[in-house]
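re: ur question from earlier - yeah i can do the single chain one, its not a big deal. heres the input i used so u can compare w yours
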Amino acid sequence: MARLVDAHTHLLPERLAAAIRAFFVEHISGEAFRYPSAWPAARAALAEAGVERCWSLPYVRRPGSASALNRWMAETFGSDPFVEPGATVHPGDDVAQVADEALGSLGLRLFKLHCAVGDYPLADRRLDPLWARVSGSGTPVVVHLGHAAGGTTTADELADLDTLAGRWPEARIILAHCAAPAVDESLALLRRHPNLHADLTPVVFDVAPLRPGALAGLEDRILFGSDVPNVAVRVEEAMAAVRALGMNPSHQALVLGGNADRLLPPPMMSPRSSVR
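and the output i got, formated as tokens:
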């Protein structure tokens, strides 16, 4: 059976997780969510569903919050072999300082940018110090491009990603949700830019609307994700959607876990950092 690595979860401080859940309940549906927002319960649910490792992706709404959140991620999950803690930054921060701290003393190995939550364009030049740093280190950056409250992305919003991928060809950029529902346009971008990847994370109620064969030639750049805990699709249902794409077993194994482990190999030593 293929190893399952979930490259898109949000195990976050409980006050922040509760606030995010309250936003979704207000703007989408109070009955939608299948998982508790508190991170210990969400972590347990992932393990119960068969996930062997997950990436936890933080994000911030305003400048000045990223450093404290990154420190919490490192302190909480730095010695947890199940959770790969990520970092984040806002373009209004001292981006170079936040990135240096996250990738240096905190020992974090992954970044998340959420354009809707932070209300900024992906190609914001204030983020250039981050892109310069990750381009040199190979650090993956997951980007949520769409600005809709429900998490969706429109085809015209992909222009920023096209610009960014061309500007930073050595950066390992992972497009969250495969930009659903604009999946055809996002896959066309992946074919133009070899540094781009995408995850198949559902958008609240819906898995990515992909046809069998749509990923042909891109199987080594597609990752599995669940969006636990803020999702109405169960992990098992998201896995079934991947299997329904009709890929051969080796390609399916890449998508379900192999690609995530290649981009971000499991740490050989614990803890990741010296944060106390």
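The chain is about 35% helix and 10% strand. not sure if urs matches, ping me
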